[in-house]
């Protein structure tokens, strides 16, 4: 039900009252057992008293037993108007002396010979009865014999007593549960007050207020508040990074767009064909730079897709690397650069998103081809060790200076010593792709002061 899902207070109350109800039911079973035992003990004592009173009136007359049943013996059993009383006295050999001759028969072996009473339940004339039996020895004249006295009564009085005790117990339990429910409702509400105050404080915050929550809360939710604070901290850092990224992206786009606008205006104003051609060349270069920047921004956005959109699977990195390298051979030939692929055999597969890994390798090969002079060598190598598959892109170009080797992985960082049209997003994109796959990217010089080697380290699938 919706109210159970929405209200923690009601859910706690429901659980606690449910536990109390179960305990109460178990207690009622115990009460009924105790009430039945108490009622039987009380009524059995009366049965025994009546049987003893009758046994005392058994006498020997000549060679037979006679009994004068006293009125007081039966009066003891008739205090409950709804109960009926029955008795029987039998002599040696189960010879009937007096009373009701059709009462249930008791085997003499079951009757204690030490004078202790025997009590049992039976049915008589369609009614449930409780029977008490005692056996006594009598001597007189020439007769010495054992006789048995049986006294029985219907059980309406006993059952009524048990029901009265059960009714009283049920009423007490219901009152207890109601009172407990009220106390628990108030107590739970009091215990949840810190959360209510916290809710009010959070409602007063503006969307941009990501300060840590410092309200006093119960220990049970302290870890939840710590987790929320950690989330808000990371969210704040993410928003700040996004704002920084947006500002940088706007700045980076503004430059080529301004150049496009300027070159277009200059081309429109001049009538010199050579000057127009020159302006169009600049315009084409600015357009390519803008297109490259937009494509890299889209690539960066793809690395931030939600997990539901992040399709993964087993990847044959050898096949992927060979296909990507082959696609750049025409570009390498045009720039007079020797581009090669040298895989180790065999190489284990990895687990990840194939398109993103392609994007990472493309960026590395493009960077190598763009920054290496004619006659250079660019090699894509594939290796593995016990835990990782390693993809390397090596070149013998100018490399990266020591002071810039850590900065090149920052967004929009562009080397001041290089005259290039890059936008500073290629390597940061690769870094984020590798982190998304549980891997890493490293850089090292091929030789002191020259040559570059970018290393992509993937965990084996």
From TrEMBL:
Native source species: Kiloniella litopenaei
A Pfam family of this chain: HATPase_c
Protein name in the entry: histidine kinase
Xref: SUPFAM superfamilies: ATPase domain of HSP90 chaperone/DNA topoisomerase II/histidine kinase, Homodimeric domain of signal transducing histidine kinase
E.C. designation(s): 2.7.13.3
Domain HAMP: 189-240
PROSITE patterns for the chain: HAMP, HIS_KIN
Histidine kinase domain ranges (all copies): 248-461
Protein's cellular compartments: Membrane
Chemical reaction(s) catalysed: ATP + protein L-histidine = ADP + protein N-phospho-L-histidine
Molecular-function GO term, any one: phosphorelay sensor kinase activity
InterPro entries: 2CSK_N (IPR013727), HAMP_dom (IPR003660), HATPase_C_sf (IPR036890), HATPase_dom (IPR003594), His_kinase_dom (IPR005467), HisK_dim/P_dom (IPR003661), HisK_dim/P_sf (IPR036097), Sig_transdc_His_kin-like_C (IPR004358)
Keyword entries, A-Z: Kinase, Membrane, Phosphoprotein, Transferase, Transmembrane, Transmembrane helix, Two-component regulatory system
A GO term from the CC aspect: plasma membrane
Regions that span the bilayer: 12-29, 174-196
Cited SMART domains: HATPase_c (SM00387), HisKA (SM00388)
């Amino acid at each position: 039900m919706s109210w159970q899902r929405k209200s923690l207070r009601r859910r706690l109350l429901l659980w606690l009252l449910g536990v109390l109800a179960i305990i109460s039911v178990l207690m009622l079973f115990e009460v009924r057992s105790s009430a039945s035992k108490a009622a039987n003990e009380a009524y059995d004592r009366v049965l025994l008293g009546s049987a003893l009173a009758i046994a005392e009136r058994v006498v020997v007359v000549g060679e037979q037993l006679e009994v004068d049943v006293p009125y007081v013996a039966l009066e003891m059993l008739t205090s409950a108007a709804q109960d009926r009383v029955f008795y029987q006295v039998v002599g040696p050999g189960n010879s009937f002396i007096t009373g009701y001759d059709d009462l249930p028969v008791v085997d003499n072996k079951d009757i204690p010979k030490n004078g202790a009473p025997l009590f049992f339940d039976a049915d008589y004339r369609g009614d449930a009865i409780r029977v008490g039996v005692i056996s006594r020895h009598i001597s007189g004249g020439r007769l010495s014999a054992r006789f048995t006295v049986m006294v029985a009564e219907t059980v309406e009085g006993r059952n009524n007593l048990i029901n009265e005790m059960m009714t009283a117990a049920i009423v007490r339990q219901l009152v207890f549960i109601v009172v407990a429910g009220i106390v628990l409702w108030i107590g739970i509400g009091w215990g949840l007050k810190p959360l209510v105050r916290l809710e009010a404080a959070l409602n007063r915050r503006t969307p941009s207020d990501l300060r840590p929550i410092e309200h006093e809360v119960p220990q049970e939710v302290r870890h939840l508040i710590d987790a929320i604070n950690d989330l808000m901290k990371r969210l704040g850092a993410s928003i700040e990074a996004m704002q920084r990224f947006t500002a940088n992206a706007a700045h980076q786009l503004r430059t080529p767009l301004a150049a496009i606008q300027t070159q277009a205006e200059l081309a429109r104003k001049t009538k010199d064909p050579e000057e127009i051609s020159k302006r169009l060349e600049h315009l084409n270069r600015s357009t390519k730079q803008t297109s490259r920047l937009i494509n890299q921004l889209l690539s960066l956005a793809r690395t931030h897709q939600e997990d539901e959109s992040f399709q993964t699977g087993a990847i044959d990195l050898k096949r992927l690397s060979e296909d990507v390298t082959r696609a750049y051979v025409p570009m390498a030939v045009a720039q007079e650069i020797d581009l090669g692929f040298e895989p180790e055999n065999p190489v284990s597969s990895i687990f990840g998103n194939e398109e993103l890994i392609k994007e990472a390798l493309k960026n590395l090969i493009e960077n190598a081809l763009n920054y290496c002079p004619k006659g250079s060598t660019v090699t894509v190598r594939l290796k593995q060790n016990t835990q990782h598959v390693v993809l390397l892109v090596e070149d013998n170009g100018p490399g990266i200076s020591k002071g810039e080797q850590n900065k090149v992985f920052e967004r929009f960082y562009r080397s001041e010593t290089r005259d290039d049209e890059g936008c500073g997003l290629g390597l940061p994109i690769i870094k984020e792709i590798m982190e998304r796959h549980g891997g890493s990217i490293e850089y090292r010089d091929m030789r002191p002061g020259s040559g570059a080697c970018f290393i992509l380290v993937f965990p084996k699938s």
